[in-house]
Design brief:
alpha+beta; 22 helices; 26 strands
């Protein structure tokens, strides 16, 4: 019910009130022809209303309130009628009131969310329905405020759960007894290469090609009887790549239906070592993850049911704890170090000890992830019992020694790879050059080169080998050698690309390929010819800061087909022109909100930069680092730029 007019006994008003109802619009009642009984009825209705009612004039001064408003805010009626909207609404901005008033006058009625502040300073959310009325030549707003604190709490809890699930680095699936997928998280889409809509129209058999219906029925029977299951399996990406996974499944019921809820982890690295495979299988098989959400002050904000079952506390008790109440050997200083690591790297992993309600101590491994949620930072962690792992401590130390030796060899490989790339850009009349590569791992598959050619011309090549790590680095080394050799035979870009493709396809193994752009530059004539094999177009900015794409890919990547036809694009450069080539590490990095850096940000950075090529590369790298925060790079990054003087 909404009351839209001022009653007669407000100071300055001596006419009868007008009453409206939202539930069913009733024609205006002329109280001038009615008895005082109607006036008393209106007064009684307003004062008994559960909603807080407030009248304000065109200057935001409060004219009158009902008893519900007084109770909600903790003021007397007299106090409120000496105040303004600014005194009770912390979001009020004086400069916005004229616009708000004009909008209300035009629309006559509005509903929006805001906040109210009580006499003791407490702020709570409200939904406000406000109506514009004119009475005896003056205009007023009549507002109805409803406390929506409980609704906001429920909405927050739902968003918090969804944010946590979407932030997980593991794939998460919901599916039913028929193995139909009902829902997935972002990690599942990213790792498997499908859209959310595609995955949610598939079954487990489409993702796990080795899973039979008979074996799935055994798993489901175990899930129904024990409430959980743990299996090793194989998943297949959209591109057909098979990789091993470790699957933890839990039984749940929702709206009368049975579902399985599973964490799926890629265990490719674990499969490289038989001992780690057996150890991890036995450790994880006997455990069920506890899940916690907590803040920088180590206060527990939320837990799952497994944490309650294992530790022996109720949910309400655990959510009033700090981490020190659960992990007695964890000191505040050690927690600060873990929190710092979490903010720098986005995740952490540590070993600790947990204590149950009955005093039992048991060792755990904690995998924590950083979450930014509505302006606050939280840690989200999986906690696993690692009692059995401690029995293999000596073996793990030996594995650590082997790991350190392997990393030392990789660091040496980095130095070797750097020797393949130009140590400094060339010096050529009328042009200034700069280039830099940043591998995601110790070694990478990105490459670039400057190749001196007869006639004072210069060959420039930039590309990206599929895959990462040592195999991509070795492939890259052979490609650089091919470009240097074949460009000396005939530097025409199309012919160079076709020749490189032929030798690359002949020795290609296990689907390796590379995208590349080859540029032939005549510095004296300022002429640039370009051939593009599956790579990103060049970006060219002229002296007037106009930015355009040049030489899009005219063929597939190198090494896929035995023969390719590739066109050569040519352009005459002028003084002040900037040319920029890059690999996918310049546009595919993601931030904490899972947003890509993207081509639009890249173009904006190039368009706004006014310095030389080297300073542009440094500025772009800095902007990419700032965009991704402390997250480790996902892909190699190579940048090449030159400018016509």
């Amino acid at each position: 019910m909404t009351f839209l007019a001022l009653p007669a006994d407000v100071d300055g008003f001596d006419s009868e009130p007008i009453l409206f109802f939202n539930c069913k619009l009733i024609s205006m009642i002329d109280f001038n022809e009615s008895s005082d009984r109607f006036r008393r009825l209106a007064e009684f209705t307003i004062e008994r209303a559960q909603e807080a009612i407030l009248w304000a004039d065109s200057n935001a001064r409060i004219c009158r309130v009902n008893e519900a408003m007084c109770r909600a805010l903790g003021y007397s009626r007299k106090e409120l009628c000496e105040m303004s909207i600014a005194d009770i609404d912390p979001d009020y901005q004086a400069e916005d009131w004229p616009r708000h008033w004009q909008e209300l006058k035009s629309r006559k009625a509005m509903t929006f969310e805001s906040q109210h502040r009580t006499r003791d300073g407490r702020i709570f959310p409200v939904e406000v329905s406000v109506n514009y009325i004119e009475f005896e030549g003056e205009a007023f707003s009549c507002s109805f405020a409803r406390d929506i604190s409980e609704r906001k709490r429920l909405e927050l809890e739902q968003r918090f759960s969804l944010s946590t699930i979407e932030a997980s680095h593991d794939m998460i699936f919901w599916y039913d007894e028929e193995a139909r997928v009902h829902r997935v998280n972002k990690a599942a889409c990213r790792i498997l290469g499908y859209s959310r809509e595609e995955l949610e129209s598939m079954s487990i058999y489409d993702i796990a090609p080795l899973l039979t219906k008979e074996y799935w029925q055994e798993i489901w029977d175990q899930l129904r009887s024990k409430g959980r299951f743990h299996v090793d399996g194989t998943n297949r990406t959209k591109g057909g790549h098979l990789f091993p996974v470790d699957v933890f499944g839990y039984y749940l019921q929702f709206e009368g239906k049975d579902y399985a809820f599973s964490y799926v982890q890629d265990i490719t690295e674990r499969k490289k070592n038989d001992f780690i495979q057996r150890f991890s299988h036995h450790t994880i098989e006997a455990s069920q993850d506890m899940i916690f959400w907590y803040d920088e002050e180590a206060r527990v904000h939320r837990v799952n049911q497994a944490a309650c079952d294992i530790l022996g506390y109720s949910r309400e008790t655990l959510e009033g704890f700090r981490i020190y109440d659960i992990a007695p050997k964890l000191t505040p200083e050690a927690w600060k170090e873990s929190w710092s690591l979490l903010q720098n790297q986005g995740r952490f992993r540590l070993e600790s000890v947990n204590r149950k309600k009955d005093g039992t101590l048991f060792p755990v491994e904690v995998s924590g992830y950083s979450i930014d949620f509505e302006g606050e930072k939280f840690a989200f962690s999986h906690v696993r019992d690692i009692t059995e792992r401690k029995e293999a401590e000596q073996a793990m130390k030996q594995l650590t020694v082997e790991k350190e030796r392997f990393e030392s060899e990789l660091r040496f490989a980095t130095q070797v790879q750097e020797g393949f790339l130009p140590q400094s850009p060339p010096r050529t009349q009328n042009f200034v050059f700069a280039a830099k590569t940043f591998p995601a791992r110790f070694v990478g598959g990105d490459f670039f080169d400057f190749i001196p050619l007869p006639g004072r011309r210069l060959g420039i090549v930039l590309g990206d080998v599929s895959g990462k790590g040592v195999s991509a680095a070795l492939y890259m080394a052979r490609l650089l050698s091919d470009f240097r050799h074949l460009s000396q035979i005939n530097p025409e870009p199309s012919l160079v690309m076709q020749a490189v493709n032929a030798v690359t396809h002949e020795r290609s193994r296990q689907g390796m390929f590379a995208t590349a752009v080859y540029l032939l530059l005549d510095p004296e004539a300022r002429k640039l010819e370009v051939a593009n094999a599956g790579h990103y177009p060049l970006l060219i900015k002229n002296g007037s800061v106009e930015l355009s794409s040049f030489a899009p890919a005219s063929s597939p990547p190198l090494g896929i087909l035995p023969e390719i036809e590739i066109q050569c694009d040519a352009i005459n450069l002028t003084s002040g022109d900037n040319v920029f080539a890059y690999t996918d590490g310049a546009i595919e990095p993601v931030n904490s909100e899972q947003e890509d850096f993207g081509i639009d940000r890249l173009r904006a950075c190039l368009k706004s930069h006014q310095g030389d090529p080297e300073s542009f590369i440094l500025a772009l790298k800095s902007e990419l680092d700032q965009f991704t925060g402390q997250a480790s790079p996902f892909d190699d990054l190579t940048l090449l730029a030159f400018k016509v003087e």
